[in-house]
Design goal:
Strands 1, 2, 5, 6, 13, 14, 15 and 16 form an eight-stranded mixed beta sheet that branches. Strands 7-8-9-10-12-11 form a six-stranded mixed beta sheet. It folds into two domains: about 60 residues, no CATH class; about 300 residues, 4-Layer Sandwich (Purple Acid Phosphatase, chain A, domain 2). The chain is globular and about 55 Å long. The longest helix has about 40 residues. It is an alpha/beta fold. Helix content is about 30%, strand content about 25%.
């Protein structure tokens, strides 16, 4: 009997121990789960530091176009930005130039077959539609605007030849693709100061640049600052030096000088023209173009820079039918290639032109010369050039 009791007691004790262990185990796991939940609740929320950091903690990269060169210094100063003109990269422009460009007929000419009638019949695109492609393909085109653009006929000077286009005729210039005009000539003031002021106002409204009579033009073309200077007469060449210095001080990288000079109908440049042109290049001009003789003159290469002494007529109400000299013209083109601010390449192209496409009368519509006429114009320039 005693043996049975002991055996039962041992069994009871074993089961009791097991029960206690299981009980403690379940309570311990519950305790851990509760503790873990409490710990998780005590953790702060995860926050994106980039959204709450102060400005001094965030470093933003500067845009590429604002890169600055910084030097170590105990007391650093504001660094100077690297400007576009100082960068060593290749830039280029194609410049076109034409001669006398008068958007008018002489004041006493009848309306029939006048410039005004052609404008009223055919509109502004008519006049240059045969050649406008050369201007639109160029980066800049300059012409000698040999007339006033004013709606007031009563301020005319007492002259044998006076040329007045309407202020609205700027649409002819823009339709052609001409960007800059020279006003330093003997017809800009045909309608007095009032007419000249009307001209510059009309050009300003149309967004057409101009130079001459004390106005210098600085125009950014393909990232190149190009300066334009207009001079009336070779005897005023002394003005070129100050004009070039002014443009240089304002960042000009190319300087174009437009001279209205020489003798009427003279086929070769006179000594004063040659001296004035060379002086302009000695002063820093990169190209010299001329007009006024109404006929073509030669081209000279002086110290690596070109001089086109007279580009002849382009649109002009003159005797262009019986006189072949007045009928022939050119579009002068020059390509400039710059590395930094240095001209590393320069080439010219001559496009022979007839100033009328009608063989019976002047229809104010230039056309490219072809065949024998083209060859004759090129040979004419060669024979008249300064060698």
């Amino acid at each position: 009997m005693m043996i049975k009791v002991k055996k039962f007691s041992k069994i009871f004790i074993c089961y009791s121990v097991i029960f206690i262990c299981v009980f403690l185990s379940f309570n311990f796991n519950d305790f851990n789960r509760t503790r873990s939940a409490d710990v998780l609740q005590e953790q702060p929320p995860v926050i994106d530091i980039a959204l709450v950091a102060s400005p001094t903690d965030i470093i933003e990269p500067e845009p590429v176009e604002k890169i600055q060169v910084l030097e170590d210094s105990d007391d650093p100063e504001e660094p100077e930005p690297v400007t576009y003109s100082k960068k060593k990269h290749v830039r280029e422009i194609l410049l076109s130039a034409v001669g006398d460009f008068a958007l008018a007929s002489n004041y006493i000419k009848p309306y029939a077959y006048s410039f005004y009638e052609y404008y009223d019949l055919y509109g502004p695109e008519y006049f240059c539609e045969n050649v406008a492609q050369f201007f639109h393909e160029s980066d800049c085109t300059i012409a000698n605007l040999e007339c006033a653009l004013t709606d007031n006929p009563y301020t005319r000077q007492r002259k044998t030849y006076s040329y007045r286009g309407y202020a609205s005729y700027t649409d002819i210039i823009t339709a052609a693709g001409i960007d800059v005009v020279n006003l330093a000539n003997n017809h800009a003031y045909d309608y007095s100061q009032e007419g000249y002021d009307d001209t510059t106002e009309a050009l300003d409204k149309a967004g057409i640049g101009y130079c001459g009579n004390g106005t210098f033009l600085l125009k950014n073309i393909n990232g190149i600052n190009v300066g334009f200077i207009g001079i009336l007469g070779e005897h005023r060449a002394g003005e070129v030096k100050d004009a070039i210095e002014y443009l240089d001080n304002n960042g000009a990288e190319l300087k174009i000088v437009s001279f209205h000079w020489g003798n009427m109908d003279a086929r070769t440049a006179n000594g004063s023209q040659v001296a004035a042109a060379r002086y302009a290049i000695d002063c820093g001009a990169d190209l010299v173009i001329g007009h006024h003789p109404h006929v073509l003159q030669g081209i000279e290469l002086y110290k690596g820079k070109y001089i086109a002494y007279s580009l002849g007529n382009f649109i002009f109400d003159g005797n262009v039918i019986s006189d072949i000299e007045n009928r022939t013209s050119i579009i002068f083109q020059q390509r400039f290639v710059l590395h930094g601010t240095e001209i590393i390449e320069s080439e010219i192209n001559i496009i022979p032109i007839l100033v009328t496409s009608d063989t019976q009368r002047n229809n104010f519509k230039p056309v490219t010369a072809e065949g024998t006429q083209k060859e004759n114009i090129l040979q004419k320039i060669e024979n008249r050039s300064v060698h």
